[in-house]
């Protein structure tokens, strides 16, 4: 891949997750799944790849009612996403 492009982030669904989370403090799993328009298993797999890379932090806060999974971009994930976007812009600009 070209300089600065991140193979982990570059996959379309993971790129969309990073773009979405970059504008929010955190998002609930169902919101991410619905934004992607995919099945639970697909969203879960993509989030797991990002989590394993250290780009996304998943949490399940205990509270009243059903336990929900929340995702947030980590500082490392935010940096990697910014570098990837800059590399895409440079590629497009030629």
TrEMBL record:
InterPro entries: WH-like_DNA-bd_sf (IPR036388), WH_DNA-bd_dom (IPR027395), WH_DNA-bd_sf (IPR036390)
Any Pfam family hit: HTH_34
Naturally occurring in which organism (per UniProt): Arthrobacter psychrolactophilus
Domain Winged helix DNA-binding: 14-92
Gene3D superfamilies (alphabetical): Winged helix-like DNA-binding domain superfamily/Winged helix DNA-binding domain (1.10.10.10)
Entry protein name: MarR family transcriptional regulator
